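tool=predict chain=A
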Amino acid sequence: MDLSNAQQIVVVGGGQAAAQTLASLRQWGFAGKLVLIGDEKALPYQRPPLSKAYLKGELAGERLYFKPQEWYEDQGVDVHLGFEATAIDRSARTVTASDGTAHAYDALMLATGSRPRALPIEGAGLGGVHDLRSLADVDRLRPEMSEGRKIAIIGAGYIGLETAAVARQLGLDVTVLEMADRVLARVTSPMMSAFYEALHKSRGVRILTGARARKIMDDGHGQVAGVELSDGSEIDADIVLAGIGIVPNVELAADAGIACDDGILVDRDARTNDPRVFAAGDCARRPLVHSGGVGRLESVHNAIEQGKLAAAAILGRPRPPEDVPWFWSDQYDVKLQIAGLSDGHDQVVVRGDPEQQKFAAFYLQDGHVIAVDAVNAPPEFLASKKLIQMRARLVPSELSDMSMSMKEIAAKALEATR
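tool=predict ok
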């Protein structure tokens, strides 16, 4: 469907995908009316710093925002904050917000994001139990994170480990509880899990794997006293942080009959099964053009890219390039940069020395590089993005040979693909 004559576009959301869609539409010449509906009172803001610099107090709140208030005014964006989008009428082409207002659309972007998965155990509603997903979440948590207090973090994914790092740097006593047999089990290799477990233990974090939380204990006054595990042991805690994953916010779309399956289903242009409705960011399940199949990508890269793809499709522009997925995580003085998706790898080649905290793990499938985890190793990360995109074949012995520069290895591999 040609939407290049659209007069009014509504964007629902308050994160990177929403901000990118609005910016790209204006940048590429859309002169009609733009409406932004966000259930938070804050303008669209960055999420990654929440568990890092903002939680630590090193980043001022105003620096989280993608654009200042003046930008929305100058660009003629009609902003409705603090109101949830509650219903889509696809026949009438309207979105109703929780304040009762209905907003007409010629094209609609759903950038509804995700929410933390709720702890399914007794005591999850006690005072001192926190999630970490929004600006408001961090503003509630940060005043409690004072030196000497005890925090139990349930879940050893990136959010859990990033928060553990900040908590230790602030002087808290930190225990991480992970149900799996290793940290980061869902997202990386055993070798990388071992590296991060050793890193945190060296900084004084207590990590318990194979640990299932059974209930959060009450101090008798409605506040956290600790966590009881399934084996009957108890972990003392003043604060509990739940970091057990996220749930995509698909209810608005699903209630309107838009196809969903662990996310709002979209095509390469971020378009749903309704040609006037698009979805982007954590809430969207998209084609993974570099690795095949479909999936949700919880990343800045994905939100930016899908925002651009949707804006281009609405305006009838050529499809922008689709990059290899990339991610990052900052923990202490260690920066992890990830390119590609390692699912399906059959070989891991390590380049550099993990003991020096400067190395990269390359994931190969039938000799082709499909992903890399680069720890304090920018050259490996940057080179790998192009190598993954071209499905370059790498020689493991050369890849692990530090006498060969990454530039030489990449040039040789790329030449072989021609």
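The chain has eleven helices and 26 strands. The longest helix spans residues 300-315.
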